[in-house]
Amino acid sequence: MLSSLVKDHLNKQAIRKEQQELKRKEAVAAANNLTQALVDHLNVGVAQAYLNQKRLDAEAKQLHHSATNFAKQTQQWVSLVESFNSALKEIGDAENWARSIEKDMRMITSALEYSYKVTQETQ
Q1: Residue partners of 40: CB distance under 8 A and separation at least 6
Q2: pLDDT (tens digit per residue) in 34-78
Q3: Nearest Cα to 118, choosing from 110, 14, 9?
Q4: How far apart are CA 113 and CA 120, in angstroms?
Q5: What is the separation, in whole angstroms, between the first and last Cα of the chain?
Q6: Closest CA to 25 of 37, 14, 17, 36
Q7: By C-alpha distance, which of 76, 74, 56 is closest to 64?
Q8: Contacting residues for 60 by C-beta, under 8 A, at least 6 apart
Q9: Is this prediction's pTM over 0.85?
Q10: Of the candidates 27, 46, 26, 48, which has an alpha carbon nearest to the alpha carbon of residue 38?
């Protein structure tokens, strides 16, 4: 009877060990699956961040290129406006010169007219 109790106990203990081993293997497999799922989830986020960074870099290069072109065009416009302003100043100087010549000519004309009248009156 004692030997049958020991055998039953050993059999039950062996069954429990097998069940524990199965449950341990299931727990390890579940932990592996969870870990893999978490890694996959994180990798998707990292991949998306990497793609976003590449897109941002490309857009930053394009923006830099556009800004450089805009700066060149702005410089050309500034140069054009400066030359236009200079031309306007020259026109203003020419107009002022023409006015001063006209004023001098009027003075000469009035002096000649006065002189002609005086000589006419004396004759």
Answers
A1: none
A2: 999 988 888 888 889 999 999 999 999 999 999 999 999 999 999
A3: 110
A4: 10
A5: 178
A6: 17
A7: 56
A8: none
A9: no
A10: 46
